[in-house]
């Protein structure tokens, strides 16, 4: 990153006082290099994931008993086609979709009514979850999302979610350390969570236990991109869980069912 880019980033943070706690947290982490050894474990974790990886259908059968499913883009073809057009027209490049079929059918199986997700971007995961929640009275998805520095993407976050699904949805636009307590105060015990925000080892190991403790027995704990570092492996070991790993588009999703 050039000096100019660094100065632009500092200015971006300086203009957002509500994100100052996250600014301090990031600077402190960089100075202390906390958990640096665990961050450099991508190769090790990808090997761990590959040994356990299942495809979506096999994972869903193990989790829910569903032996076949219709994909989300076919179930909601018109809405999905419209969402793809919106994403394509978006002037800001953000993160791509995760395993939308996995999210939707897990929410359907659980009859989920209270869900938390971290990380929104275009809103693909939000869309899949909301397709399910719209079938249940008083259901709510609370999403947390911090704007991308220097991307000016604030107004585009969640852009693929249509207005008719937003009645069940609330976005808390803070970093995890500020947003997750607000989300949990709003929802209380949850049926399902989907983690897709701070991908660092330190960030995951801070957020995972908080989400896990809020999850009801029988609920699903889901985390995207677990191949980045060994945080998911270490967390599963700490709670003595036997996780399911799903392979999707050369990435890995981790799932733990709370007993």
Write down the CATH topology. Rossmann fold
Topology, number of strands: 8
Parts with pLDDT < 50 across at least 5 consecutive residues: none
CATH H level: which superfamily? Vaccinia Virus protein VP39
Report the radius of gyration as a whole number of Å.
Answer: 18 Å
Q: What's the oligomerization state?
A: single chain
Specify the helix fraction band. Answer: 40-55%
CATH architecture: 3-Layer(aba) Sandwich
Characterise the protein shown here:
There is one protein chain. The chain has 259 residues and is α/β, with parallel strands linked by helices. It has a single domain, classed as Rossmann fold (3-Layer(aba) Sandwich). It has 12 helices and 8 strands. The chain has helices spanning 3-14, 20-32, 36-39, 42-52, 56-64, 72-75, 77-89, 100-110, 124-133, 176-187, 201-214, 231-238, and strands spanning 53-54, 114-118, 140-144, 169-172, 190-195, 215-223, 244-248, 251-257. An 8-stranded mixed beta sheet has the order 1-7-8-6-5-2-3-4, with helices on both faces. The longest helix has 14 residues, at 201-214. The radius of gyration is 18 Å and the shape is globular. The termini are far apart. The mean pLDDT is 88.
Characterize this entry briefly.
It is built from twelve helices and eight strands.
Keywords for this entry:
259 residues, alpha/beta, 8-stranded mixed sheet
Q: Which helices and strands appear, and what pairs or packs with what?
A:
Layout (H helix, E strand, L loop, with lengths): L2 H12 L5 H13 L3 H4 L2 H11 E2 L1 H9 L7 H4 L1 H13 L10 H11 L3 E5 L5 H10 L6 E5 L24 E4 L3 H12 L2 E6 L5 H14 E9 L7 H8 L5 E5 L2 E7 L2
Parallel strand pairs: 1-7, 2-3, 2-5, 3-4, 5-6
Antiparallel strand pairs: 6-8, 7-8
């Amino acid at each position: 990153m050039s000096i100019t880019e660094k100065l632009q980033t500092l200015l971006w943070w300086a203009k957002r006082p509500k994100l100052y706690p996250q600014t301090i947290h990031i600077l402190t982490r960089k100075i202390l290099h906390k958990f640096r050894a665990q961050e450099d474990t991508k190769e090790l974790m990808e090997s761990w994931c590959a040994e356990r990886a299942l495809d979506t259908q096999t994972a869903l059968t193990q989790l829910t008993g569903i032996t076949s499913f219709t994909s989300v883009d076919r179930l909601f073809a018109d809405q999905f086609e419209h969402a793809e057009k919106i994403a394509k027209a978006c002037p800001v490049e953000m993160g791509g979709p995760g395993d939308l079929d996995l999210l939707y059918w897990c929410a359907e199986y659980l009859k989920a009514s209270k869900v938390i997700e971290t990380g929104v971007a275009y809103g693909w995961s939000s869309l899949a979850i909301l397709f399910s929640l719209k079938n249940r009275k008083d259901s709510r998805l609370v999403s947390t999302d911090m704007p991308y520095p220097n991307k000016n993407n604030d107004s585009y976050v969640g852009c693929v979610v249509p207005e008719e699904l937003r009645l069940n949805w609330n976005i808390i636009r803070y970093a995890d350390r500020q947003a997750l307590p607000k989300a949990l105060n709003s929802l209380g015990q949850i049926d399902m969570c989907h983690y897709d925000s701070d991908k660092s080892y330190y960030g995951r190991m801070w957020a995972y236990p908080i989400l896990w403790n809020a999850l009801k027995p029988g609920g699903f704990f889901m985390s995207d991109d677990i191949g980045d570092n060994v945080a998911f492996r270490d967390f599963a070991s700490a709670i003595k869980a036997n996780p399911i790993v799903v392979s999707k588009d050369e990435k890995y999703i981790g799932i733990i069912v709370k007993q």
